[in-house]
C-alpha cells in the first residue's frame, strides 16, 4: 500500500503509507493524485485531509528511487502539488512527527495546515548540495516569513512545529492540535469546508522591510560560512527571488534553474554519495536485516584512560549503565574525574543541562574486580595496545562473563582472531575500534573476526546507531581499513620530505585540498612515538617495506609532538599553534645529505595526489581482499574518522571524480620517480579491472 483513501462523514482522508517515512515515491504520488480525483468526483465529500501513516507525515522524496526513471515519472512532485493546489475543495495537511523536504513542499501546496506539537519541520536539501526543487524556496518565505524561511532553507535543520506556529504573522500552520491529531484535523476540515475562495500560499506576498540590505548581509554571512559548498548561496538567491521576482512563476523558474545547476556540481554528487554511503555501511552482505539481536542493557569498559573514559561516555549519553573497571584505584579515580570534567565543560557551555549531567553520572559505576562486571551484556576492552596485555584481559573475561555476553576489543591494529582465540567463545568476540576522542568522533570500525557470530554483528551495528556512531565493518588485517591506508599516506609524506618538501608545505597543500589536518600536524597531535613503534615492528615483520628515515631521526631527538612541546613543529607552553621549526629544517637538510638526495621543487598538486592516491590504491587492495565490503565504506571511514573533505566525498569518490584513467596515469608517473616506492604504485588489480571495463569505484 502506498496511499489509502477513505471517507469519514464529509471528509475524504488520504493517508500516505510508504514506510519507513512515507517517501513520496512514484506509486505514492500517483495514489495521492488519484485520491484527490476521487474526492473531487464525490459530491458527498466537502473537504480532503492528507496525513501520513506510522511515524511520519512524509520525509520527502523516496531515496530508493534516486537516480531512477521513477523519480521524475508523472505525476512528479510539482505536478502532484499542482493537483492539490487546484483542487476545488479544501485540502488540509495533518502533519505529525516528521515533515521534511518534499513532504513539507506538498503540505505547502495544501490550502490549510494543522500540526501536532513536536513535529520536525525542515527543508534539508542543502545537506545534499541541492535546494528545494518543488516550490519550497518560493512558498515557505510566503507562509512563514522571509528571514525564518531563509534560515531553515540555508541550514536544512529541523524546527519544532509549535515554535514555527509562534512566528509573528506566519501562515504556515493554522492550528496546533493537542491530543488526537486525526480527530482534530477532521474537525478543522469541517470548519473550513465551506470557505471560499480557497487560500493558496503561492498568492501570498513574500515581504521584507529592507530586502536589499538584508539579502546583501545574508550573502556575506552565507558565503563566508559555506566556502566549499555552492548550494547555500543558491538557496539564498532562490529565496531572494520570492521577494524580488515579478511573479510566483518567475521565482519557480529561478528555483528550478538553481536545482538543475546544483545537481551537476561535484559537491552535490559528493554529498549525495556520502548520504547513500552512510546508509549502505549499516548493511552487512551475509547478515539479514531481520537477524535477531542480543539485548544490551548493561555495558562494562576495561580501562579508565582517555580512550576508556570516552567510550564509556557514549553509552552514558545513550542512557545505558556503564561499569568502569581498572586495576588501581588511582587510575579509576582519575578516569571518573575526567568524565566528570568533560560533562561539566558541556554544562558550562550550555550544551548539556544540569539534570542530564546528573542522570548520566548516576549511570556510571566503577570497580577493581572482574566479578562485578559478570552480568554485563557488552564489555569493551580499552587497555594498552600490546597483545600480551590483551591476552590477560580476555582470559579473565572468558572466565567470568556470563554466556552470550559480547566481548569487544578497542584495538586499532592487532589481530582480532588471535584475541578471540584467547577465549573459549570466539563467536562472541569482535573489534570495536573507537576513534579518539571517542565521545566525539563519529566513526566506529566494527572488526569482524573469523568466527564472529552474525547476531553479534547485528547487535553492535544497531547499538552503534543508538550511540550515534557511523559503523563500518572491516575484516581482520593489520590496521583494518583506516590505519592500514593511513600508513601508505604517511609513507608518501615521508618521501616528500626526502625530496625537498617541508612539513608545513605538505600540511598546507593537504589542508587547502580540504583535509582537517595535514599528516605532520596530525602526527604531532597523535604522538610521533606511536608511528615510531609501528615502524620498528615493520622493520622486523616487513623488511622489504621502505620508509623515509626522517621520522625516526625526529623521534631520536625526543620530538614526539604536542605532548613534548616539540615535534615536526615547535609549540609554546599551553598552546596548540604549530610553529615551523628551525631544528627540524636543519635535521631534514642533514638527512637529505646523508641519503644523497638533492631537493627539488614539488607542486601542491603532486603532494595532494601522491597522498590521496596512496589511500586509493591501498583501499583497492582492501576491497580485493574482502577486508572492506564496498568502496563507499572506505569513504565513510575517511569522512568520519580521518578528516577527509566532505565536499569531495571520500578518497574513492574523489578518484572517480578525477577519473580512474587519470589516477592510473598519475600512479605510473610516481612509479618512475627513483625516490619513491615503484612497487607500491603498481595499480591494484581492482583498479586495472575497473579501468578495463569502463567502470568506477562508486
Describe this protein's structure:
With 698 residues, the protein is α/β, with parallel strands linked by helices. Helices cover 48% and strands 11% of the residues. It contains 28 helices and 19 strands. The strands form 4 sheets. An 8-stranded mixed beta sheet has the order 12-11-10-13-14-15-16-17, with helices on both faces. A 6-stranded mixed beta sheet has the order 1-2-3-4-6-9, with helices on both faces. A 3-stranded mixed beta sheet has the order 5-7-8. Helix 1 links the parallel strand 2 (11-16) and strand 3. Helix 1 packs parallel to helix 2 and helix 4 (136-144) crosses helix 9. The longest helix is centred in the C-terminal third of the chain and has 22 residues, at 604-625. It is globular. The two termini are 32 Å apart. The model has no long low-confidence stretch (mean pLDDT 96).
What are its keywords?
698 residues, alpha/beta, 8-stranded mixed beta sheet, 6-stranded mixed beta sheet, 28 helices, globular
End-to-end separation: 32 Å
Helix coverage percent of residues? 40-55%
Low-confidence stretches: none
By secondary-structure content and strand pairing, the structural class works out as: alpha/beta
C-alpha-based Rg, rounded: 29 Å
Mean pLDDT: 96
Strand order of the largest sheet: 12-11-10-13-14-15-16-17
Number of strands: 19
Major sheet details = 8 strands, mixed
Amino acid at each position: 500500500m502506498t496511499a489509502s483513501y477513505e471517507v469519514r462523514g464529509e471528509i475524504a482522508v488520504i493517508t500516505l503509507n510508504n514506510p519507513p517515512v512515507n517517501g513520496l515515491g512514484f506509486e505514492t504520488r500517483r495514489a495521492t493524485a488519484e485520491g484527490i480525483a476521487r474526492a473531487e468526483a464525490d459530491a458527498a465529500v466537502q473537504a480532503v485531509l492528507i496525513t501520513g501513516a506510522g511515524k511520519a507525515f512524509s520525509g520527502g522524496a523516496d531515496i530508493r528511487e534516486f537516480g531512477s526513471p521513477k523519480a521524475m515519472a508523472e505525476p512528479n512532485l510539482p505536478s502532484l502539488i499542482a493537483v492539490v493546489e487546484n483542487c476545488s475543495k479544501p485540502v488540509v495537511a495533518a502533519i505529525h512527527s516528521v515533515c521534511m523536504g518534499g513532504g513539507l513542499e506538498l503540505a505547502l501546496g495544501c490550502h490549510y495546515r494543522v500540526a501536532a506539537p513536536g513535529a520536525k519541520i525542515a527543508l534539508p536539501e542543502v545537506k545534499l548540495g541541492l535546494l528545494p526543487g518543488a516550490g519550497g524556496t518560493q512558498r515557505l518565505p510566503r507562509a512563514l516569513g522571509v528571514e525564518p524561511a531563509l534560515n531553515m532553507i540555508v541550514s536544512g535543520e529541523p524546527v519544532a512545529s509549535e515554535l514555527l506556529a509562534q512566528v509573528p504573522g506566519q501562515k504556515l500552520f493554522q492550528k496546533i492540535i493537542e491530543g488526537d491529531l486525526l480527530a482534530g484535523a477532521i474537525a478543522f476540515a469541517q470548519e473550513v469546508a465551506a470557505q471560499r475562495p480557497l487560500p493558496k500560499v503561492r498568492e501570498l506576498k513574500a515581504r521584507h522591510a529592507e530586502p536589499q540590505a538584508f539579502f546583501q548581509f545574508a550573502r556575506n554571512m552565507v558565503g563566508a560560512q559555506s566556502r566549499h559548498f555552492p548550494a547555500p548561496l543558491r538557496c539564498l538567491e532562490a529565496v531572494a527571488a520570492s521577494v524580488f521576482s515579478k511573479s510566483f512563476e518567475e521565482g519557480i523558474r529561478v528555483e528550478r534553474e538553481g536545482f538543475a545547476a546544483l545537481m551537476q556540481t561535484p559537491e552535490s554528487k559528493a554529498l549525495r554519495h556520502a548520504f547513500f554511503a552512510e546508509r549502505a555501511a549499516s548493511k552487512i552482505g551475509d547478515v539479514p536485516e531481520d537477524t535477531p539481536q542480543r539485548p544490551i542493557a548493561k555495558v562494562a569498559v576495561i580501562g579508565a584512560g582517555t580512550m576508556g573514559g570516552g567510550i564509556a561516555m557514549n553509552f552514558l549519553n545513550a542512557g545505558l549503565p556503564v561499569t568502569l573497571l581498572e586495576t588501581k584505584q588511582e587510575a579509576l579515580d582519575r578516569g571518573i574525574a575526567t568524565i566528570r570534567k568533560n560533562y561539566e565543560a558541556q554544562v558550562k557551555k550550555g550544551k548539556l543541562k544540569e539534570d542530564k549531567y546528573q542522570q548520566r553520572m548516576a549511570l556510571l559505576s566503577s570497580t577493581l574486580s572482574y566479578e562485578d562486571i559478570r552480568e554485563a551484556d557488552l564489555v569493551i576492552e580499552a587497555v594498552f595496545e600490546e597483545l600480551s596485555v590483551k591476552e590477560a584481559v580476555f582470559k579473565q573475561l572468558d572466565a567470568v562473563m556470563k554466556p552470550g555476553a559480547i566481548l569487544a576489543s578497542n584495538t586499532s591494529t592487532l589481530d582480532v582472531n588471535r584475541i578471540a582465540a584467547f577465549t573459549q567463545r570466539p563467536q562472541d568476540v569482535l573489534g570495536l575500534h573507537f576513534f579518539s576522542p571517542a565521545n566525539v568522533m563519529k566513526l566506529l570500525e566494527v572488526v569482524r573476526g573469523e568466527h564472529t557470530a552474525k547476531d553479534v554483528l547485528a547487535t553492535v551495528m544497531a547499538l552503534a546507531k543508538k550511540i550515534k556512531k557511523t559503523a563500518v565493518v572491516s575484516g581482520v588485517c593489520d590496521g583494518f581499513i583506516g590505519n592500514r591506508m593511513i600508513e601508505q599516506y604517511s609513507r608518501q609524506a615521508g618521501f616528500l620530505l626526502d625530496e625537498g618538501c617541508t612539513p608545513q608545505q605538505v600540511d598546507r597543500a593537504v589542508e587547502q585540498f580540504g583535509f582537517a589536518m595535514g599528516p605532520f600536524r596530525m602526527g604531532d597531535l597523535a604522538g610521533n612515538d606511536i608511528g615510531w613503534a609501528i615502524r620498528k615492528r615493520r622493520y622486523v615483520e616487513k623488511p622489504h617495506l621502505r620508509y623515509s628515515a626522517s621520522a625516526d631521526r625526529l623521534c631520536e631527538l625526543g620530538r614526539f609532538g604536542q605532548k613534548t612541546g616539540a615535534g615536526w613543529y615547535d609549540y609554546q607552553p599551553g598552546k596548540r599553534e604549530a610553529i615551523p621549526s628551525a631544528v627540524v629544517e636543519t635535521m631534514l637538510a642533514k638527512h637529505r645529505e646523508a641519503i644523497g638526495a638533492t631537493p627539488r621543487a614539488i607542486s601542491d598538486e603532486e603532494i595532494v595526489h601522491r597522498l590521496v592516491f596512496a589511500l586509493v590504491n591501498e583501499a583497492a587492495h582492501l576491497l580485493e581482499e574482502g577486508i572492506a565490503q564496498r568502496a563507499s565504506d572506505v569513504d565513510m571511514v575517511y569522512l568520519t574518522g580521518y578528516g577527509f573533505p566532505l565536499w569531495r566525498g571520500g578518497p574513492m569518490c574523489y578518484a572517480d571524480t578525477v577519473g580512474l584513467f587519470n589516477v592510473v596515469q598519475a600512479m605510473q608517473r610516481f612509479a618512475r620517480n627513483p625516490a619513491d616506492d615503484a612497487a607500491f604504485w603498481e595499480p591494484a588489480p581492482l583498479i586495472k579491472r575497473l579501468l578495463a571495463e569502463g567502470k568506477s569505484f562508486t
